[in-house]
Amino acid sequence: MKLLSLDPKRTQAVVQPQSTQDLWRLSTLLEAGDVVTGKTERKIKVNEDTVARKPIVLSVTVTKTELQGDMLRVSGTTVEGMDDIPKGSHHTINVSVHDQITIDKEWLGWQLEKLQEEDTHPILILLMDREEALFAVLRREPEILATIKGTVQKKGIDGGSPYWQELATELGHYDDRIRPLHIIVASPAFFKEYVINLLPDHLKKKTVGATISATGEAALSELIRRPEVKQVLSQERYSQETTLVDALMEAIHKEKAGWGIAEVAELVPIGALQTLLVTVNFLNGARNDGTYDEVSALMKTAESTKAAVHVLDTSAADQVDKLGGIAGVKRW
Fold this sequence. Notes:
Blueprint: E1 2-6, E2 12-16, H1 20-29, E3 35-45, E4 51-68, E5 71-78, E6 90-96, E7 101-104, H2 109-116, E8 123-128, E9 132-138, E10 142-149, H3 162-178, E11 182-187, H4 191-196, H5 201-204, E12 207-211, H6 219-224, H7 227-253, E13 257-259, H8 261-267, E14 273-279, H9 280-289, H10 292-304, E15 308-312, H11 318-321, E16 326-330
Parallel strand pairs: 8-11, 11-12, 14-15
Antiparallel strand pairs: 1-2, 2-7, 3-4, 3-7, 4-5, 5-6, 8-9, 9-10, 13-16, 14-16
């Protein structure tokens, strides 16, 4: 998610989703009463037989969001009237990847955290074989950094070629510049091992090898779908959430925790929690049974008492789901 701007009062954010995952994230953050401004279209009758579509910028007060494939439908009532669209009429803004929208709402801390969350720390990628190499960085989307032509003959292939050393050296240079959390070296067959073996130990520790069928720009899409890459992308968020859940379990063992909506609702108003954990499953359930506003208000109150509020959406949340989907570590 690109956060293009956030006003000093933290009420208006301009965002640009970079993936369908971002669209899903927006669907979980938007609430009834928020105001969303974005580009849409209105139909204009040219004549009896022809209807044209005119692009307009419209603001709606949100009543409903619905994720349909690679599009987020934000439905609501218009904030201001224009031409043949009266104020208060129902309209839907369709948000696709790379569309820019403005959101006016009272942002809670955990919502801003989710809004700014990226998948995430850059990952440095090297796709290579004996004939060519491509360096790229993966943030939300892959960005090609450079290409190098190979110099290794098909006969007598071994790990002693200066070409492999050149690639290892370039990885080191890019690591210094980009500071990636992980490095992925991918190739057909065994070529990747030649480069990985030449890396210094501090780079080897964060390097993962992957197998691809070809090299070049087209192979980036294949690589991103590889299980090795998916595992790397999920590890960081999972690790963060596991640390939070482990701390909760330790607090339960020490009788310094509360869980379940009834107990948490008693602890939050008196400022007894230093950390509040809520699972996405719990929030989705609250949306379905009509209690989301109460849960959202409880989370807002927790933040007002300086509790750290975290929404869990990896498998690390399973343990919290078993406790009712909401739990907290006590201050005393």
